[in-house]
Amino acid sequence: MPNASDFPYLHGFSKTEQDRLRTQAEFTEHVIYKDINFSGNTNILEVGCGVGAQSEILLRRFPKIQLTGIELNEKQIASATDYLKDFSFAKDRYELLKMDATQMSFDSNQFDGAFLCWVLEHVPNPKHALNEVRRVLKPGSTIYINEVMNSSFFLEPYSPHVWKYWMAFNDYQLDNAGDPFIGAKLGNLLLELGFKDIKTEVKTWHYDNRHPTQKSETIKFWTELLMSAKDQLIKEKVVSVELAQKAEQELAQVARNHDSVFFYSFMQASARVF
C-alpha cells in the first residue's frame, strides 16, 4: 500500500487543520446534504473519511446506516476515532480502516451506497478510485460525490495578490497529482466507468449586499481555507512569505468592504450502479 506521505496534502495534518476540516463540514452541511438521501440504505462506504467530520453528519442524518470509512493517513484515522467516540448516536455503527481507495480489500457487491466529499481532488488516479467504488457497490446502489471547481472562485473588489496566491495553490495541487478542477469532469468519469442515472448539479455560494451576514461568514471561512495551505506553499517555495501576507491582507480588506462580492461553485454528482 502506498504511504500517505507519497501524496502531498496541501493543507497538512496538524491539529489546527483537523479542527478546520470539522468547521468546514459544519459550515457546508446545509448545502451539501440538501439533495443527499441515504434513508433507504443500510451499509454505506465513505471514501476518504479523513477526521470523521462528514462521518458524524452521515451517522446523525441517517440513523439506520452502518458506515465504513476508509482513509490512507493514520493521523486522520486516529483523529476521527477520537472524535466519533463522543457521539452516542454513532456507537457501534461505524468502522474506520486504513485503505487505498484505488486498491480496496473489500469483496465485490459489499455496500449499498457510497459517499465522497472533497476527496478525488487529492487522488492521483480518480478514475481508478471510482472504478473500485463501483466494484464494491451492489447493483442498484447510489453514489454521491462532492468536488471542487476552483476556476469558479471570484472576489470583488479585485484582489491581485489573492489571485496570484490562488493560482499557486491550484498549480501546486496539479503538480502533485491532484486536480482542483475535477468537479466539472465528474459526469464524464462516471459515464466512462459505466455508472447509470448520472446527475450533476452546480452548487454555488454567491453573496453580496443582499446577504451581509452570510457574505461575512463565507469570506472568513475561505480566508481560513486559503491560509491553511500557506505553510506548505511557502515551504515548497511556491509562494513567498510576502505574497501570502499580502493575500491575507487583501482578504481582510474584502471582508471589510461594504460592496464586496463572493462567488464560488462546486459540483455535486450522483449516479447508480447496475
Structural notes for this entry:
This protein is 40% helix and 23% strand. The protein has 274 residues and is of the alpha/beta class. It has a single domain (4-272), classed as 3-Layer(aba) Sandwich (Rossmann fold), CATH 3.40.50.150. Strands 1, 2, 3, 4, 5, 6, 7 and 8 form an 8-stranded mixed sheet that branches. α5 (160-175) crosses α9 (241-256). The two termini are 29 Å apart.
Give the class from helix and strand content and strand pairing: alpha/beta
Segments where pLDDT lies below 50 for 5+ residues? 1-5
DSSP strand tally: 8
Tally of individual helices: 9
Q: Which shape, going by the Cα principal axes?
A: globular
From the 3D coordinates, which CATH architecture would you assign?
Answer: 3-Layer(aba) Sandwich
Computed Rg: 19 Å
Assign a percent range to the helix content.
Answer: 40-55%
Amount of beta strand: 15-25%
**What is the first-to-last residue Cα distance?**
29 Å
Order of helices and strands: HEHEHEEHEEHHEHHHE
CATH superfamily: Vaccinia Virus protein VP39
Overall pLDDT, averaged?
95
Largest beta sheet, briefly?
8 strands, mixed
Number of domains in the coordinates? 1
